[in-house]
Amino acid sequence: MPKQRQIPRLFPQQLADGSTAWHWKPSKTLRAAGFVNVALGTDKRHAITEADRLNDEVTAWKRGTPADARGVVASAPARPLPRIVRVRELIATYKKSDGWTLTPEQGGLKEKSKTNYETRLRQIEYWARDGELAVRDIDAALITDLRSELRKQSAHKCAAVLGVLRLLLNFAKSIGIISHNPADDVTIPSPPARSVMMPSRIRDAIVEAATELGMFDVTLSIELAFWILQRQRDVLDFGRMAWREMGSLDEVEQRHLAEVVDARGRVMGFRLVQNKTGTWVDAPVPPILHATVEAAMRATNHGYVFPHPDRPEEPMPSWMFQRRFRAARDAAATVAIIRGDLEFAQLISLVQYRDLRRTGMSFYKNAGARLAWITELSGHAVIGKKTILDTYMPGDTAAAIACVATGVAHWRRQQKREKQA
Questions:
Q1: Are residues 210 and 343 in contact, defined by beta-carbon separation less than 8 angstroms?
Q2: Which of 45, 168, 220, 356 makes a 20 to 30 Å CA pair with 19?
Q3: Positions of the chain with pLDDT lower than 50, given as ranges
Q4: How many Å apart are CA 393 and CA 59, to the nearest integer?
Q5: Which residues, other chains included, contact 200 with Cβ-Cβ below 8 Å and sequence gap of 6+?
């Protein structure tokens, strides 16, 4: 078998897991004639066989039509026009590529990102005349019109759709379908940073409504997200395996320990790897929530704090929780309307579950917690980029405890002032 470097147009690609993928790549002239890049997989023998076959097709194309049975040589056929690739076909091809099929460990997309991309790709296909639009017919003017329409709906949706469209067209460029990405000529607007807070009055109203509706999962999740600053998916994944007694207490000041130690002398919390960032975080939970968390985990044999109601061996899916949270929020807004407080009802209707993370961080800052403590608890990187330590080592437990303890002490003072008022 010949060496792969002796085979024209056969190129290796090193993958993140150390394996090699093979691609057959035609020249610019051949691409103009309709030949396209072909992914040949990771089996080298198969790749070499397929590359030889594709090269034979190129040779036959260059020679033209052979002589017929009478020995009359036909004239060479006219060069075929490039095959038209439509958006639907491009999306299908992209979903078979390494960029889509590789696991996160191999450098591919995380499941949450893939779910979001699925949504945006469906929106792009709908915009592209249900996928029938030819990829080569997409130009900057079309994309500018799309941007104008999306801006009317939502700045966040506009940025998300155009970002995925740019990625998709870059893929089309990489496999020779187009020579220039028109999305590069269109500015993608940056969505405004969300600044909505969920102060205690709104949290209490939603908790009250959730309790009336029997949604105790919503009630507990609001408390947890506020106190330990974690994102929705991370909160929903909490279970017995992540619940533990916090270590590294030698470095914790006694005044902080006094605020977070429960009646059994424990500092309890969750150790997790954040789904979005891959960062290790130790998240101490205030003692007032320990009994509720442990009761929720004992409610089923599978130990999730927020189990799927029909399949308790699985955590609750994000879409289901969002539906329940919105139901509680809308019920709270309705109660405010019935009570004649239309302004408060409007404020309630604006909040989203993700606002709890921002609200909690602001609460800790006002309580006097140091910035380094807050970011240890939230999993943010303050200066520079995330390092290998963030990926493989647990967070600073002592700093996270100091943050929660500072907040608990501040909350106690607030409760005392309210009772004295």
A1: no
A2: 168
A3: 1-2, 4, 65-81, 382-384, 388
A4: 56
A5: none
